[in-house]
Amino acid sequence: MSASNIEKSFCTTREAATLLGVSVGTVQLWVESGLLQAWKTAGGHRRVLRDSVDSLLRKEPQALISAAPAAASVIVSPRRLTVLVVEDDPALLRLYQTRLARWPMQPQVDTSADGLTALMKLGGGGPDLLIADLHMPHVDGFAMLKILCKAPEMARTTIVVVTGLDADAIEARGGVPPGVEVLSKPISFDRLLAIATSIVQQNGARLEAS
Questions:
Q1: pTM tops 0.85
Q2: Distance from C-alpha of 102 to C-alpha of 149, rounded to nearest angstrom
């Protein structure tokens, strides 16, 4: 085998991240969970098997889970991750649905176009992850979050705000409740995936302890 063929059989974590359209940190997470096959050189540099990258690009999430049982124990919990996205922009809602459908844990995604509809949907219990805008019609995100953070059924829900408002504008409106992470637009799907992965891992630990 020539040197060029050997080089093409693997790639760096940065090259894998570029091919997959995710961050280097996400690639490292997928390597550690078994979704990607990799090894370390004598100098401590990680090399990712190119075939595993190509496989991840080709396969549907369920096929991927079946092909990688080691990853399933980390990425997939006994029940599907539930996500509610509250956003009044139809284009952004479609973007959320498209991108979240590609997540390895195959979340169950629901959407709401305003805070009032979201509150009605949350009456029966909170999702694992709530992603919300702040500027919305009817009941806006600020009012919705104040209500939700007092609700006992939301105790295990991770709430993330994704907004175009800057920190000063948010503070001028009263801020967001403690524990709510605020992400700026454009949407950081890498960060959202990292949050979702952490929730899945925590849910697995809870289920084992119960």
A1: no
A2: 29
